[in-house]
Amino acid sequence: MKVHELHSWPTSPEEAEAIQYRLRPLLILDAPGPSTPRTVAGLNVSYAPTSVAAAAVVLDTKTLEIIDKSVKIGTPTFPYIPSLFAFRELPTLLEGTTTIGRVLRTQNNVKPVFVSVGHRTNLDTACRNVLDLAPEYRLPETTRRADRLSRDALAG
User: Fold this and answer.
1) What is this structure's pTM?
2) Of 4, 72, 76, 134, which one's alpha carbon is 20 to 30 angstroms from that of 52?
3) Alpha helix stretches (DSSP H) within 5-118
4) DSSP 118
5) Dist. CA 86–CA 88, nearest whole Å
């Protein structure tokens, strides 16, 4: 997961409140969102006296089977303030999130492709390979040619 830094991390509740106020207009609360997502994720942070456990679970929406899960135990770096939970919980949540894929634009002005890790191939290498294999078209040549072959086979 690529996290875009919109601001420096606050060191005081006053800074955190100012960040929340500045980011509030960026919220889009009236968009319907995807009507039938294939997967959904849930996040939760539990507290102990001197530590936090951040967990993420990804479910298949049709079967409710767990597709992926992650948990990270950490130390809170921000005070417990009810209206500022994100600043206390988010650092540990982000540490515990495993990136398994990336949205990658292979050409200008085209839809991106989705690239994921593979056996003995990390995400950076997979993305580099896809970009190398897509010199002219949106899809890498391997996928483009396999798509053509399968469509030709069905056409007879």
Assistant:
1) 0.59
2) 4
3) 13-23, 85-95
4) B
5) 5
- The answer to whether residues 79 and 94 touch, using CB atoms and an 8 Å cutoff, is no
Segment 5-64, tens digit of pLDDT: 777 889 899 999 999 999 888 888 777 777 788 887 878 888 888 888 888 888 888 998
Q: How many CB atoms lie within 10 A of CB 40?
A: 13
What is the 8-class DSSP label of residue 151?
A: H
Domain ranges of the chain: 13-27+37-95, 101-155
CA distance 10 to 112: 33
Residue pair 76/92 in contact (Cβ under 8 Å)? The answer is: yes
Alpha helices in 69-110 (DSSP H): 85-95
Structure tokens that stand for 44 in this block:
């939760």
